[in-house]
Amino acid sequence: MARLEKDESGIDLINKGEFVNLSEELTDDAVSIEDIDEVLQTLERATSVETETEEPLIEETSSSVESEEGMSEEVELDLSAGEMDKTSDPIRVYMREMGVVPLLTREQEVSIAKRIERGQKRAEKAIARSPIAVVELFRIGDELAEGKLNIRDVVAFSDQMETEEHEDRSEEYLQWTIEGLQNIRNLYKRGLKEFEKFASEQKLTRGKRTKKLLRYRRKLARTRLEIAQEIRGLHLKEAARQRLIASIGSVHKETRTLEREIDAQAEKLKRKGLKADKQKEFKRHIATAKKRLKEIEVEHHL
Predict the structure, then answer these.
(1) Distance CA 225, CA 187 (A)
(2) Which residues contact 124 (CB under 8 A, 6 or more apart)?
């Protein structure tokens, strides 16, 4: 049994060495439920030792109180908070739950990593094939040429360049990026011409799948693919990618707002007993929203 000590009040305490041993066991890495249960059993044994030593003291205290019944002195009661219940101790609860909840297996980790990679590739394709994002990328190029943006904030340098100690090659990367953006501009202009031919042919055929229409569509698809490859070769940083995504989101938000406005005004026109002035007002709102939608389509070649 552990050696006992007494404090000033006369109550026996467990030797401090016992608590040192317990703390050492608690700091070890518990990787299984058996290890956690062993530590908890050690705590329970220490608690039972403390309980056994306290029982005689309780009897002794009670007998001393009975022997002094005739005295008028009041017995001082211990109203201090007791020890925390083992089941409500957050550390013990965490350790037990940590051993019960299983972690991801290697196969699950690989599966999640593949899903993340596929999602990133889909996002890159959507950005590179959006004319809205391409136009925003040209704005970034203009700001780089004017010195409003730092090249290090736009493109990611190679790891070798970042680790080796040699002269700053920011100017060289700036020239590469501007040249790459110029190639994208040329491809974009070519794609616009192909898009105009495709749209004109589609209008003439009224949506019918003719050989000429399919040929224009394939040429336009190849140009878009070349633009996407050029954008991927720029190695844009996440901040620049988020700027392109924000430009797409801004146009999409405006488009959705206009579409909802058209639907709302159209519902109002269906009301019975609607006055003529209200009808004109609702129709005017619909015409304004449709005009703005047409402007967005022309501006972004959608």
Answers:
(1) 10
(2) 228, 232
Q: CB-side exposure of 11: number of CA atoms within 13 Å?
A: 10
Please give the helix or strand (H or E) that residue 156 lies within, else none: none
What is the predicted pLDDT for the residue at 301?
79
Cβ atoms within 10 A of the Cβ of 61, count?
13
Q: Which of 301, 190, 184 is nearest to 231 (CA)?
A: 184
* 202-239 pLDDT tens trace: 888 887 888 888 999 999 899 988 998 899 888 889 89
Task: State the Cα–Cα distance between residues 63 and 58, nearest whole angstrom.
Answer: 9
The tokens of 229 are what? 């490859």
Closest CA to 257 of 267, 247, 265: 265
Query: Is the model's pLDDT at 247 over the cut of 70?
Result: yes
What DSSP state is assigned to residue 70?
T
CA 266 to chain centre: 39
Q: What is the mean pLDDT of the chain?
A: 76
pLDDT mean over 252-259 = 94
Q: Which residue's structure tokens are 């109550």?
A: 11
Cβ atoms 140, 240 nearer than 8 A = yes
Which 3 state secondary structure label does DSSP give 155? strand
Burial class (CB in 10 A: 0-12, 13-18, 19+), 116: exposed
Q: Pick 208 or 62 by higher pLDDT.
A: 208
For 118, how many CA atoms within 13 A lie in the half-sphere containing its CB? Answer: 6
SS3 275: coil
On the question of pLDDT at 49 being above 90, the answer is no
